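Dear all,

This email documents one entry for the complex benchmark we are building for the journal club exercise. For each entry we list the sequence lines for every component of the assembly. Then comes the predicted three-dimensional structure of the complex as a token string, followed by one or two observations. Please use this as the template for your own entries, and keep the labels exactly as they appear.
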Amino acid sequence: MTATETMNAPHEQQTLFFDDGTQTRLTKFLGWFSIGLGVAEVVAPRMIARISGTRDHGALIRAYGLREIAVGAGILTKQDPGPWLWARVAGDVVDLASLAGGSRRGGRIATAGAIAAVAGVTALDIISAQRETSPERAVPKAAHDTERAEASVVIRRSPDECYQYWRDEENFPRFVSEVRSVQRTGGKKSHWAAGFEGSTHTIEWDSETNEDPAQRRITWQTLPESRIYISGAATFEPAPGNRGTIVRVQMDFDHPGRTLTSPASRMLGKHPEQILYKSLRRLKQLLEVGEVITTEGQPAGRRGSTTWLDKIAR
Amino acid sequence: MRANCWQGKKKMQVEQVPDPKLINSQDCIVKITSTAICGSDLHLYNGFVPTMEEGDIVGHEFMGEVVETGREVKNLKVGDRVVVPFPISCGKCFFCTQGMFSLCENSNPNAWLAEKMWGHSPAGLFGYSHLLGGFAGGQAEYARVPFADVGPIKIENGFTDEQVLFLSDIFPTGYMAAEACDIKPGDTIAVWGCGPVGQFAMKSAFMLGAERVIGIDRFPERLRMAREKVGAETLNYEDVDVLEALHEMTGGVGPDACIDSAGMEAHAPGLLGAYDRVKQALMLETDRPIALRQAMVAVRNGGILSIAGVYGGMLDKLPFGSVMNRSITIKTGQTHVQRYLKPLMQRIENGEIDPSFVVTHTMSLDQAPHAYQMFNDKQDECIKVVLKP
């Protein structure tokens, strides 16, 4: 062993965390860990359930296994593993929630162990995800590089009716679940407050709406002093065959943190494009049948009337 | 109230849950007098329908008395006796106005999830997974019924529950399957699965003018019901090679139309059955399309394949070359129940059919878990269970 190698040895060990190559060793480790755990979950879900002290949810555990494999493959093969690592973090949260709620009788100790283990891995995931998405590693983005979301829906109402409903900003909380309140503040201006269900965090901004004289298009944009940037356009054109109106919405947005557009938000059904599309479906319900259909508040043989799946779906 | 809840694979439990309340202004609350277990509920029971969650109240064939109505409900009032269709339909969207009620665009609050799985979303259904809305079902003392003006049919003619209850699902389902066969005088119709839907499909095929109806199953009591109550000829697939037998019975031509009322958990003796069981267990396929494959190749050239049995996902080894090269038409879908309520009620009133012939067991709601097990294992010659809350 040469002197250089000896000196390098401790450094080598540390590279698990601090390599400056295209991917850190920790990232690679997490990628392979994902695939290994995923394969185990798909092949032997009962064993996984036994080890973690949970009820025997074969199908669910297999689905989690497929998720692990997909995320692992993403981490190992993509040039930018950052989003995939955040997806791991999101997966960890799902796993932890499942463990916390899924312990079988007599499995509490095993579950506690499993939770501790997952929590440990979660910490590694967060460290790695933060490193991979840190500003120094990020590809420089142009100033005001916005994201775009687009969605459309056919509504069995005339373009005029759809247009009139849309131009009243105060209607928005009825079909965009994330919008908490809108107040017209005079002229074309309005004040908006939004936040996710169950979160106390609210973000507020001021917006200006512009209509066209033909009543087929509405555009809006946040005022310059707002913390976030949103500009959007909605068009209302007659659908062929007298089937109502095609409502098309396009939004460009930018916001601090960019957490909204992470793969994790997409997995949870809360990516802005998903929110936009689901909102349009609810708008369709309001205009066609006068209300938004829900199961919130119905009875069930469990604590809540709805489940995590409903929350993702809606 | 008491309600039958899905608590996992092969685990139903009658639990004390809160009474349902009006949620949307077009809802009504029904106090249930009779509710049935459907063959498709067995797919839930056996864990083959994805997105079921522990604690889901199941059941989609129910009837009873209206005890509360939302402020927008106009056609129903407290005290009305109603049968409730299993699809939830708004009555106002494009599909509802075309009579395709089970494709309602506005009744599945989880439509986005269904779109991810199937491309587009069908209507919400009572008690049939979160993919189809996550609505609480009707194997309970009370149920909340959305769009109360659109679905429920008032029963004012004094028929018993058992005579009208099956308007909620299986009678229209069997009828729609037979109607899809576009039956002409002299036609021969073969039906895979002689469960309650199969019985109604066979009966409906005769009502629509079929000359011969052939029922295929393996349970002697079901075949007997098909012969004695419906007047069908029968084949036991454990005793004969079905394809050969149909070939022989039709002079080599094949039935003019074939109805699959077995669905995703079909059985077959021998290697083919084992193949699908293994693949399904390994999640390499979601459904066992054994009856479907047979029906596909059995039907005559240019004939119709009508599928009433429920399928969920990805099917394997379908002989599609046979379908394409022989000009086969495939018709299927969840039943547009609302479309059939009045015409089929008329047939009951005319005495053309008494749907209660399928009932073999009447039990209390509290016995639901036992009833599921019995129905699933075909014990005690069980064909149809009606539960009384």
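Observations: Chain A touches chain B through 40 residues (CB under 8 Å). The mean pLDDT of chain A is 84.
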